[in-house]
Amino acid sequence: MLDFFSIATKGGLVLWSKAYGPAQSSPINNLIQDILIEERSSTQIYYKDNYAIKWTFVNDLDLIFIAVYPKSLGLTYIDTLLQAASTQFSDRYGDRILRKSGGIPQLKDWGVQFEALLQTIEDQDALSKKTKQPRKFEQTVGYSNSLAYAKAKPEDIKDTSKPALVDEDEFLRNIEMLKKKSASPRIGMRKGRGAKSPAASPVIGSDDSKKKTKEGRKWDGKISAKDAKSLDYSNSDAADVVNADHLVDQSKLGQHGKDGTYNVADLEASDEDESYSDEESEEEYTKISARSLQAKKPAASSGLMSFFKNMTGQKEMTAESLEPIMSKMKEHLINKNVAADIAQHLCDSVAKGLVGQTLGSFKSVQAHVKQSMETALKRILTPKTSVDLLRDIAQAQAEKRPYTIVFIGVNGVGKSTNLSKTAFWLLQNNLKVLIAACDTFRSGAVEQLRVHARNLKALEQNAVVDLYEKGYGKDSASIAKEAISSAKLTGHDVVLIDTAGRMQDNDPLMRALAKLVTVNNPDKIIFVGEALVGNEAVDQLTKFNAALKDYSGLANPRHIDGMILTKFDTIDDKVGAALSMTYTTGQPILFVGTGQTYTDLKNMKVNNNNSYCPGRHYTADSNRTYTMNLLNNNDALSLAKLRDVLIRLEDTIIFALIERAQFALNDCTYQPGVYKYDNGSQGSFLEYFLHEMEKVHARVRRYTSPDEYPFTSPLPEPMLPTLDFPPTLHPNNINVNKDIMERYLQDIVPKICAPGDDLNYGSSATRDTECLQALSKRIHYGKFIAESKFMDPTQQKTYIRLIQNKDRDAIMELLTNRTVEAALLRRLRRKALIYGSDITETGEVVTKEGEVEGSTATAAAGATTSRKIQADVVVDLYERFVIPLTKEVEVEYLLQRLDGWQIPEDSKN
Ligand SMILES: O=C(O)C(=O)C[C@]1(C(=O)O)C=C[C@@H](O)C=C1
Questions:
Q1: Which of 38, 138, 464, 526 sits most deeply, having the most CB atoms within 10 A of its CB?
Q2: For bias kind Basic residues, which ranges apply (predicted)?
Q3: Pocket (CB within 6 angstroms of ligand 1)
Q4: What kind of fold does domain 4-231 have according to CATH?
Q5: Lowest-confidence segment of 219-228, 502-511, 551-560, 617-626 by average pLDDT
Q6: C-beta pairs of 350-354 under 8 Å, 24+ apart in sequence
Q7: Active-site residue identified among 798, 817, 829, 851
Q8: Is the ipTM of this complex over 0.85?
Q9: Per-residue pLDDT tens over the stretch 642-654
C-alpha cells in the first residue's frame, strides 16, 4: 500500500501531503537532499532504507509529485497514480497558480479527489491481477489514465482521507510563496539544485556566483525567513559578471561541415531508445514489433506476440480474431506515450495487413506484424516538408532582409532556453542574431533573455547577439514588428522572437499569439514543447494550430512549421512522444533539447532500421548526404550541397585514375575503327566496350537521371519504369562527353599510365569506363551549379543581362569563385598524395622513397615506395581540364537559360 504522497514545489515547499503508513517525512527528506538538491540521480525512482520513492515533475507549474511505498511491495500502479494525480491537480489549480491571483485552491477538495483517485487505481490494480483474461483496451489502466481520471468530479467522491501533514493555513502560505517564486525567472529557480555537485551541468541563464553559495533547503514543510528570501528572485541582478565557460560543454559541441557550417551534434545512439536486434527471441518480441516502440523492460508473459503465437496454424486471420491482439497492441502503444488516436491508426494499419492472411508459423506472423508496423510508422513519420534553416536564412540574406523565427508553446517548457540554444547554433554559423523579448507577460522573462544575450556574447568574442526589449505589458505583436524593422537597419541576419507561454485553452492569449503571427508573418513558427506524452501532445499542438488558423483572419493562415522537443533526456519512451507530435502536425522535429548548456541542442537521429529519423533528412542540420537525391527538389539546388557532391566525386575520380594507372597504356584499345557498332558505324575497342556497358546501364534507366550522360548511342529504352525527377534544370542540350573523351585519351591516359602494352585490354577498358563516367558526371554537374547560381536572387538580374548580351566572358567571370577553386586544388593535392601513397604499419604516409611524411625517418619495412599516382598530375588534370570544362558547361547552360523562360517582373533589368 502507498505510505505517503506529497505535492511540493521544486524548490522544496510542501503544498500538500498525506501519510498512510509509518513512512513519515524521513524518506522524503532524503529524497530532497539526495536527488533534488544535489542532482545525484537522473532516474525517477529512488530507494532508501525499506522505501521506494517515485516522483514526477509538472514543469510548467514547477511542482513535483512524490509517492513513497514499501520497497518490498513493488507497487506497479505508482506511475499511473503520479501521472493521474499530477494531471488532475494541474487541471484544477494550474491556472490559479500561474495567474498568481486566482484565490486559494481548496485543500479539502483536493484531499477528497486524491483519495478517490487512489481508490480507483488500487481497485483496478487488484482487478487486473485477479483476471488472467486479456483485457479490452478500454478496461486498462492506460486507457483510464488517458481519459477517465481527467474527467473525475470531486463532488462525486466521498472524503475518506486521513489528516494531512500540512494544514490549510500552511497551504495558503505556501501558495503565496509559490506565486512569489514563480514571478522570478524560471531558470534562476533551478540554480539551487546541483550546487554541491561540481560535475553537474550548469543551468544556462543562471547566475553561477549565487549557485556556488547556495545551500540545500531543509525539507520540513515550513519556510524559514532565510528560505523565503532565497525563494524570491524578483530582484536578481542580471548584470553579474558572466563566467561563460560553464555554459558550453565542449564535449557536446557539434561539427563543422566541409562548407564551414556548424551543425549541432546528433543525439547519441546511447541517448536513444535501445536498439533493436534481429536476433531477439520470441519472448523479447513480446515487446512489440516496431523497433522504435519496444518496451524497455521485459514484457509480461502475456505479451503481444504470445497472442499471435496462439493464432499460428489458423486458417485465416479475421478482424474478429485479431481484435484482442490489436486491443493489447493499442494499450502497449499508449503506454509507450503514443496518443490514443495514433495508436489506433497504427493498429488499424497492422490489422489491415493481416486480415485474410494465412499465417503458418510464428515467424511469419512476426514478420508480417513487423513489416506492417514499420510501413505505418514510416508513413506517419515522413514530414510533409523539408527544413534546412541555414539554407533558408542564406536565402533571406540574399534578399537583404532578416530571417524571423517565432518560438511558441505552453508555459515552462523551456522556450527561452531553447531559443538561446538556437541562438548559440546560429552564432556558431557566424550569423548576427537579434532576440526580440515579446514575452511581455511573465515577470522575469525579459531579464532572463538579457542574461542569455550577455552569456552568448561572452562566449564568442565576435558574436553579434543583441536583445530588443520594451519591458512588460506592451503589445507583443508591435514589439516583434519593431524588432524586425530594427534588425533590417542594424544588419542582423536572424530575429528570434520569444513569446509568452500560454495554455492552449487560454483564448485571449491564443488570439494575441495569432495576431503576432499575422502582423509579422514570420519565416518559421517553431513550437517548443516537452517531449510530450500521449494525448497531451495532440491536444497542445492541435489547439495551437487551430488558434493560428481561426484567429488569423487570413485566407492562407499559418501553422506550426517545426518543433523543438525539450527535456528529451527526461522521458523514457521518447519515440512515442515524437511520433505523436509529428503525426499531429505533419511537421518535422528540428531539434531536441537534452540538458542545461548551450550545446545541449541536438539532432534527433535514429538508426536506419525504421526508427524515427527526422534528424538525418529533415532538420536544420540535414546531414549532408554525398549522393544528391535529385528526386527531392528541395535539396537539389543548394550550392553547398552541390559542392559537397563535387568533393565526393574528387575521391571517385582519384581512385578511378589509380585503378587505371595499374595497367599499361595499351594504346591498341584506343585505335579507331576496330569494332563495329549495331548501327554499322565503327569504333575503338574502348568505344565498343563503353557502348555495351551503356546499353545495360540504359536498360536500368541510368541516363534518365539528369546527372548522367552517355558517351555512345543509340541506346535501348529502360526496362524499369522511369522515375519522376522534378524539373530541376532548365531544358538544354549540353553534352560535352566528346570533349571529355578526347582530353582523356590525349592528355590523361598517357600521363598516368606506363607506356607500352601489357595485354590487359579488358581491365584497361573497364577502368577507362569508370574514369570517363566519373569525369562526365563531375563536369556535367556544372549545370546544377549554374542553375543554383542563376536562381540566387542577388545575382539573377546580372545573369539575365549578361545572357541577353551573350557576354560569354562576363558570365564566366561572374560564375568563377577563385577561393573555392584554390581550396579545391589544395584539398585535391592532399587527397591524391594520401590516396596514392603507401601507408606504413604505424600509419604514416610514405612520401618519397624510404621517407615518411613530416619526418626524415625511414619508412617501415613493407611499405613499397612507388606512388600509385602523382599528386601533381591529378592537380594539373583538374586545373587544366576538369574545372575549365565544368565552367564551360556552366556558361553554355546559362546561355540557354532564358530560352522559353518568362522573366519574372522583379528580375527584369
Ligand atoms: O563551386 C562552384 O561555384 C563552381 O562553379 C564549380 C567550380 C569547379 O569546377 O569546381 C567551377 C567554378 C568556380 O570557380 C569554382 C568551382
A1: 526
A2: 182-194
A3: 643, 646, 785, 815-817, 820-821, 824, 883, 886-887, 890
A4: Beta-Lactamase (3.30.450)
A5: 617-626
A6: 350/289, 350/326, 350/376, 351/319, 351/322, 351/326, 354/317, 354/322
A7: 817
A8: yes
A9: 898 999 999 999 9
